[in-house]
Amino acid sequence: MSGPSATTPIGFVGGGNMASSLIGGLLQGGHTPSALTAIDPSAEQRERIKSDFDICVAADSADLGPVEAVVLAVKPHIVEAACRAMAPTLRADAVVISVAAGTRSADIDRWLGGGRRVVRCMPNTPALYGVGASVLYAGETVDSDQRQLATHILAAGGKTWWVDSEQELDAVTALSGSGPAYGFLLIEAMTAAGERLGLDAQLSAELAVQTLLGAATMAQQDSRDAASLREGVTSKGGTTAAALSAFDTGDFRGLVETAMTAARDRARELAEPTGDSTP
């Protein structure tokens, strides 16, 4: 394989939101529809995918065909069954990309029969809109072309990064994987506070969303780091300083770290070995 092309055959096991976002992004990037296949046992899901994207769909993973990459886009508790079902017909040199949280590469490899090329990825839900953050990890058996192919697929949903150790994905889960919920919670809190301060509910909600969007855009496009940007909009003795002082009194930073540590620890718990040693 010499890197991804518009006709590289790619399969998706699971046809939910994450798979749909990646399929849509790949097609928008010029990938050939006939080179993409989605597997889902739900006739309703298959019909939706066919209608939305006009790609190949099937109910059984045995119908994946000779794909060079397959994206495991199913819930964590379904990964084992999905792997065992596709193992007999999957190409020996295909790269398997799992977006299932908390499922270790070693388990995926074992369920596929051993000796497989596995990439684990932690994406997040903004990938549905092409602005996601996906972090990937690959074992030693994954070659450079396959890493490039995995990047190509996940970049269809936003930005991508690679980490050198699988353990780092637990911290990634706590930051970017669960992170959108933290942003939504802040939007909720700012909206509710705005209402209590006398604003119309719709105006308060729209201001909260636009303000965080603006702050994120500045943080992304400005060369200064977040601390410098914060200092730049904080006048001594002003309104922003008063608000930030209240955050400090409530140990906002410590609370964020506590929350992310809880998410990281839960990710580790979910990834505990199953105890099943059979291939």
Notes on the protein architecture:
It is a single chain. This protein is an alpha/beta fold and 279 residues long. Helix content is 48%, strand content 13%. It has 2 domains: 157 residues, NAD(P)-binding Rossmann-like Domain (Rossmann fold, 3-Layer(aba) Sandwich); 90 residues, ProC C-terminal domain-like (ProC C-terminal domain-like fold, Orthogonal Bundle). It is built from 11 helices and 8 strands. An 8-stranded mixed beta sheet has the order 3-2-1-4-5-6-7-8, sandwiched between helices. Helix 7 crosses helix 8. The two termini are 28 Å apart.
Gist of the model:
The protein has about 280 residues and is α/β, with parallel strands linked by helices. It has helices at about 15-30, 45-55, 80-85, 105-110, 145-155, 170-175, 180-195, 200-220, 225-230, 240-250, 250-270; strands at about 10-15, 35-40, 55-60, 70, 95-100, 115-120, 130-140, 160.
